[in-house]
Amino acid sequence: MSAKLVMMRKIQVITLFPEMFSGVLNNSMMWKAQNQGLVEFRMINLRDFGLGPRRQVDDTPYGGGDGMLLMPEPLFAAVEDAKVYDPTAKVVIMTPRGRRWKQAIAQEWADGGDNYIFICGRYEGYDERIMQLVDEQVSIGDYVLTGGELAAMTIIDSVVRLIPGVLGGENSAAIESFSDGETLEFPQYTRPEDFRGMKVPEVLLSGNHALIAKWRAENSLKSEK
Ligand code: 6GU
Description:
Blueprint: E1 9-15, H1 22-25, H2 28-35, E2 39-45, E3 58-59, E4 69-70, H3 72-85, E5 90-100, H4 103-112, E6 116-120, E7 125-126, E8 136-139, H5 149-160, H6 173-179, E9 184-185, E10 194-195, E11 198-199, H7 209-218, E12 221-222
Parallel strand pairs: 1-2, 1-6, 4-7, 5-6, 5-8
Antiparallel strand pairs: 3-4, 9-12, 10-11
Helix pairs in contact: 4-5
């Protein structure tokens, strides 16, 4: 018997909408990862750090312009709270201006062993002074979301599923290195063999693994990137 020490990964999220995360983080693989003690999620409600009796978190921009910005005081206080809990965690801010997320970064973060604090903005943006506390600015693509929450969930899912031990055999090194962001995809079929006259290609029923591999290679398309 050899006992292996695995550090539980901590992921904290600063958001005005913590309830948005429960559907994603408390189901499927993210739920399993928590259950196995491999990851722990902690939601921090930015509203708890708002100013005054109305717990204000946003204000109008100096110099004019539309919309509201998240104020520095509540954001700093929320990050400081997260750092008390996890002093060495990396701070990541979700912004369409950030570095474009990709599979290779998910793999690095999963392997790297760091813990993370995600800051999710709403409204038109953040007071720039929050960047003093930020290690990384991340975006998930060239489109604008109403808030950083969906982007943070996307990133968390893509990292956590790669943490060693989270997935079973279905996440074998072979399958993952094959995918590797440059997903080669071939068509797949399950039962029944004949569904409403649409038949599974004969070769896949042949049991001839060399022929099947050849068919899959010929029918793989490189994803558009
Ligand atoms: Cl990280 N945030 C927002 N608001 N929109 C985005 C994004 C992030 N990534 C792509 N679009």
